[in-house]
Structures are given as C-alpha cells and as structure tokens.
Amino acid sequence: MVKVGVLGIGFMGKMHFNTYRAYRRSRVVALSDLDPKKLAGDWSAIGGNIADKRAAQVDLSGLRLYSPPADLFADPDVDLVDITLPTYLHARYAVAALEAGKHVVCEKPMAISLEECDRMLAAARAAGRQLFIAHCIRFWPEYKVLKQLIASGRFGKVQSASFWRKSSTPRWSWDNWLLDAPRSGSAIVDLHIHDTDYVTYVFGVPAAVYSSGAVGAVSNTGVDAVVTHYVYPGGPHVTAEGNWALAPGFGFTHGFCVVLEKATIEMDLKGQKPLTIHPLKGKSVTPKLPKDDGYVAELKHFVDCVAKGKGSDVVTAQDARAALAVCLAEAESVKSGRAVAIR
Predict the structure, then answer these.
(1) CATH 3.30.360.10 spans which residues of the chain?
(2) Which of 13, 88, 191, 195 could form an SS bridge with 183, CB 3.0 to 4.6 Å?
(3) pLDDT tens digit sequence for 61-88
C-alpha cells in the first residue's frame, strides 16, 4: 500500500485524489492546500476543461489536512507526494518534497524552464527517490494503442502524422494563472505539450522545429495558438496544432490522423470518430481499447512503480524535460519566424 499526500486541490488535484482513492494499492492519507474551504471539503468552485460530475462536497474525515506544504512533507506516514499546483510552483515544491525523502508525482508540464527541470532531476538523484511527471497522453487509450500499432510494423512505416488539441480559453484557473504566460507558459507549454510529448515518444526528439502561431491572443505575452512542423530528416512528416484561443461555446477537442504505408489511422473527439484503422485492403476496423482513461492508467502505473521500487518504463523525468525543451524551441520559432534546432 502506497500512502499518498496530495498538494494542491484544483481540477487535476481532484482527478488525482479520486483515482488514488479508487485504487487498491494506494491510499490518500493527507492533503495540503492554502484554501480553508477546500480543506473543509467544499470543492464546488473547482473548474476545468473536462467534465467531472463527482461530488462538490467531499468527505475528508480521517485525512490529515495541512495548509503549509512543509507540514505535508514532514508527515512520516506519506510515501508519495502528488503535486498538482500551478506550473511555476512545480520545481520549488518538488525539490522540497524530494529533499524530505518523498517520492514525487508532479503534474505536466514538468516546470517553466529547463533550469528548473535540472534542479528537480538533481534533487531526485541526490535523494534516491522517484520523480514521475504526469504526461497522461502516453497512457490515454487511443494514443497507447496507436503507439502499439506503429511500433508493431503491421502497417508499415509512418509517412505522415498530424495531431491537434484545441480548447476554449481556460478562464477558470485560480488567480487566472493559466493566462499569465510567465506562470503557465501559455498554451504552447500547458496544452500543446501533450502532443509534443507524444510526438517525441513515438518518433523521438526532432532535429528542429518550425512553428507559426499567435502571441498574446488571449494571454498577456504567451503563444496561445501554434502549428508546428517537427523536422525529422528522411521523414516522416509530422505536424501538431495547439490552440486555446477559441470561443467559450467551442469546448475542447483533440485527435490525430496517421498515414502509414498500408493503413490510415484516425481519431477525432469532436467529430465523434473513435480510433479507427482504415487498411488499404479490407474493411475499416475499430480496435478494442484499454478501459482506464489516461489519468487513471498513469497514476496506477506510478503507484505500482513505487510499490515495486522501480522507475517508469513509459515516461521518465528526462522525457518530460525533453518535451519542454521542444516546446520552448517551438515558442522561439513562433516569435522569430525561423526554424529552431533542438539543443
């Protein structure tokens, strides 16, 4: 049994809390948040871009409830600290939790800067503890199966691939931090990084990126819309689009279309198109998917890793750093109007 302390009760904090409570190998023993209403179980004000109809009033009896994060880190009964704070706070509190001897799950993106990522990695090495970054798309059923299909070679090599992720402007965040680019990295780092990370997972880190987009469309100074060509010498041709400048009525969507030598594979949430394989010969098929969504699958995986004393074979902290490095290069490309090599 892995005993968990959750730091930060917002949209993702609630998602993680519910998952840990439902999994047989984990037990939430403590929470930390600065909002006394949330510590009293009133989660009615929590917003998000994905519907969650679970109770707004949560029974927290039996849990240890802390305001200062340091008190959570000092709790000897906590094995694993789950950090679901705003991005600009990730490095500060991940390092403190690791130095206190806790394993850490930290929401994506890993941090705001590569320097912060390096501090987190160094703290994990020094403490001899696990650091997991919650890049959930690697675990999302459609994307997990797509990766397996590509890796199998059943349909030949990938010739081209496009991914997209679009959302109404996220005006629901605490203190509007998501639309403050210095704190969130804006859409390119908070939203689009899902697809960038998946691209690096399937195809490797690109040699360069060439991106265009909109700066300051809804945030103060951030890249709020981006279309990127990931440069892989010799192929395949890979692009991804991220945008959170859409009107309130649009909602949220994501999807992909991957063209292989012997089939085309697609998924489109808004178009209500499930993961479908269109072979060059024969009928289109919809493969069976894993039952757990990406949030549930990733946290079960991380808990199992801690319980077994091993690292993740799906996503490492170094992978998360690489995804941020590519996104920061994309932002540079948008602002400079030129291709940017990945260093």
Answers:
(1) 137-291+323-341
(2) 88
(3) 999 999 999 999 999 999 999 999 999 9
